[in-house]
Amino acid sequence: MSKSRPPGHIYKGRLISLRLQEVILPNGFKVRLELITHPGAALVVPFLSRNRIVMLKQFRPAINSYLYELPAGTLNAKETPLECAKREILEETGYRADKFYLLGEIYPVPGYSSEKISIYKAEALKKASEVKGDADEILESHIFTKQKVKTIFKEGKLKDAKTISALALCGWL
Question: Measured between alpha carbons, how far is residue 133 from residues 78, 137, 139 in Å?
């Protein structure tokens, strides 16, 4: 006997699920949507000082390229966004932070995904460990000044939307 999926569900993976859903829009138009359900994520802007942050250069297989990014990750089951932020900054940079401030929340691709990213500013950093990361993460930690961030942005080398949003919320772009 095979297990049946709930109506409209096409795929359920470890991280996301894909479903088809018919929706009636506020104007009365009926549409059939392909929607990705995502548990949410947290992103951290780690400040070493007023003018220096920790950024990552991370390989992203989906685009077969490296991107400059800020530390971020998907929420684990029953994990709050702040708990996720604290875990990710340590895993991806090796730093702990004494102070976290919620800067805002974004929906990176609301046309087809429920993913919401909570963005935090972290201050009072202390080196705690070597960068561990996950086995499927290829990343390098770098310290950037505000001017360096602006330069790589103007040169078109900063392409990660969640990172651009977070830096804008900090007044760095």
Answer: 21, 6, 8
What tokens were used for 114? 């429920």
CB 70 within 8 A of CB 55: yes
* pLDDT above 70: residue 122: yes
Q: Which two tokens stand for residue 132?
A: 């561990």
The string of pLDDT tens digits covering residues 127-173 is: 997 776 677 888 999 999 999 999 999 999 999 999 999 999 999 99
Q: What residues does 45 pair with on adjacent strands?
A: 121
Q: Treating both helix axes as pointing N-terminal to C-terminal, what angle do 146-154 and 161-169 enclose, rounded to 10 degrees?
A: 140
For the stretch 78-93, pLDDT in tens is: 999 999 999 999 999 9
Query: Closest Cα partner for 101 from 173, 166, 172?
Result: 166
